[in-house]
Design goal:
By secondary structure, the protein is α/β, with parallel strands linked by helices. It is built from 15 helices and 20 strands. The protein has a seven-stranded mixed sheet, sandwiched between helices. Strands 9-8-7-10-11-19 form a six-stranded mixed sheet, sandwiched between helices. The longest helix is centred in the first third of the chain and has 21 residues. It is globular. It starts with 14 loop residues before the first strand and ends with a strand. It binds adenosine-5'-diphosphate (ADP). Adenosine-5'-diphosphate binds next to helix 7.
Length: 491
């Protein structure tokens, strides 16, 4: 990896606490592996409970100074961070591809969107304002103040090693909070490079701390702390539910971005070429490893066969391989367990009658160097039915299962038949249908004839068991602000 990085100072491997780079007190370590080769990329200290308490203490000690700055001053530090990260974009993208496997072009795209979150937050914090209420009595005045919630913990996953961090850390810092970040142990290097750049940008020591290693130990120290006032989590539904339960003891605020099981509806009047490109882009983004990937594709009977043929043709032209190879369109899965899950979902569907239209297994011809990688071909399955695992469970891999429907009511019922409610997509050219489907689908985000829905200005998040709260946009900054009511008696 080092040979691909211009600025070697970005290759940090320690914990970052109170402005210092630290090892584990007990000397423990763990390794980050390259998912394309299965080989180690770096060895890092396995931080635990005590280091987490130190990080929380340092975030707490700098809180008065950081929150005491004006929004303009905090924004200026964030803007400097944005500038340095922009200059380092190629290095960050290479670190990301090495630890998470996504093709370099996709890593570059993620860096750009992460940068947007920093930029947005740096500006938006200057527009925070309270209220002066119309009083209910002439001898009183009533005000509402907005203040930072305090010390925030951010716990982030491996599938977007930068943007899941920046969409939490940037608004938190902009709002005047200080942060303890726990990135995924599978992709901590991107997080550490960002911390190095924040340090260079002049962020005060302790305003951003990074701890990683023993996730349950770090998590329980965070959740038990009375100092940490809010957690922002993106990850699995199982861990999110556990954190929410743990948050009850200290009544922490929680924002959760959990799993999804996104429906993708192709209505009878859809532009099929557009919909086919859309479903491939959505279902196979990051090799199917995003929480908003299309998981279940419902196609109207009248257009099913033509649509299926179009999708299969596009998918057959994709190229699986090392994310650093210029012709690679799709990288590996994050690890062997993820690969096993995809293979199991595919086998389950086939055993229950699904037909493989493209892909279907491990790629046949990969270079020897990638023999230890977790690769699965982008795969299209026709004849999917609701008794298959692909209907109920989030695959988190490159499967495109095609289901059939015959009218709008059936499509909506199938789409909503899940405990998840993150993103949904549909393709239609009918305006009335567009309105009614958008209203009837029980999801936090809807793409109408569009799958690239994520944006720094737009509220990202889910309903039902997909989560609580929203990230990005104005509401994403407000999540880091408390509301304080002041009633002033005039005697
Ligand atoms: P995924 O399956 O996407 O890795 P996880 O929910 O396991 O999802 O991981 C998301 C984040 O949650 C990671 O940073 C991971 O280390 C962290 N995590 C996992 N288990 C715990 C735990 N017990 N307490 C706190 N954080 C945890």
């Amino acid at each position: 990896l080092s040979s691909r990085i211009k600025d070697k100072g970005l290759l940090r491997v320690d914990g970052f606490i109170g402005g210092d780079w630290v090892k584990a007190a007990d000397g423990g370590t763990y390794q980050v592996l390259n998912p394309a080769t299965g080989k180690p990329v770096a060895t890092l200290p396995r931080l635990r409970h005590d280091e987490t308490l130190a990080a929380i203490a340092s975030a707490h000690s700098v809180l008065p100074a950081w929150s005491g700055l004006t929004a303009k001053q905090r924004g200026a530090v964030l803007r400097k961070w944005h500038q340095l990260a922009t200059d380092a974009a190629e290095d960050i993208a290479a670190i990301m591809t090495a630890e998470c496997g996504k093709p370099l072009a996709e890593s570059r795209g993620e860096v750009a969107s992460g940068l947007d979150s920093i930029d947005w937050s740096a500006s938006e914090c200057r527009r925070v304002s309270g209220q002066v209420l119309e009083t209910t009595s002439r001898d009183r005045r009533m005000l509402v103040l907005r203040q930072p919630v305090g010390v925030v913990a951010a716990i982030t996953p491996w599938n977007f090693p930068m943007s899941m961090i920046t969409r939490k850390v940037a608004p938190a810092l902009a709002a005047g909070c200080t942060v303890v970040l726990k990135p995924s142990e599978q992709t901590p290097l991107t997080a550490l490079a960002l911390a190095e750049l924040a340090d260079r940008a002049g962020l005060p020591e302790g305003a951003l701390n990074v701890v990683h290693g023993d996730a349950p130990a770090i998590g329980s120290a965070i959740m038990a702390s009375e100092t940490v006032r809010k957690i922002g989590f993106t990850g699995s539904t199982a861990v999110g539910k556990m954190l929410m339960a743990q948050a009850a003891n200290t009544v922490k605020r929680v924002s959760l971005e959990l799993g999804g099981n996104a429906p993708f509806l192709v209505m009878e009047d859809a532009d099929l070429a557009l919909a086919a490109r859309g479903v491939v882009a959505s279902a196979l983004r990051n090799s199917g490893q995003t929480c908003i990937c299309a998981n279940r594709v419902f196609v109207h009977d009248k257009v099913h066969d033509e649509f299926a043929a179009r999708v299969a043709e596009i998918v057959k032209g994709l190229k699986v391989g090392d994310g650093f190879a210029p012709d690679t369109t799709h990288g590996p899965l994050i690890n062997p367990a993820a690969l096993d899950k995809v293979a199991a979902h595919c086998a389950d569907a086939v055993s229950k009658g699904a037909r493989v239209l493209a892909g279907g297994g491990k790629p046949a011809s990969l270079p020897e160097r990638l023999a230890g990688g977790s690769f699965f071909e982008p795969t299209v399955l026709a004849g999917a039915t609701i008794d298959m695992r692909v209907f109920r469970e989030e695959t988190f891999g490159p499967l495109v299962p095609l289901f059939r429907f015959s009218d709008d009511d059936e499509a909506v019922a199938l789409a909503n038949d899940t405990e998840y409610g993150l993103a949904a997509y549909f393709y239609t050219r009918d305006l009335k249908r567009a309105w009614t489907l958008a209203e009837r689908l029980e999801y936090g985000m809807i793409g109408v004839n569009e799958v690239a829905i994520t944006a720094d200005v737009a509220p990202f998040g889910g309903i039902k068991q997909s989560g609580l709260g929203r990230e990005q946009g104005t509401i994403g900054l407000e999540e880091f602000l408390e509301t304080k009511y002041v009633c002033m008696g005039l005697g």
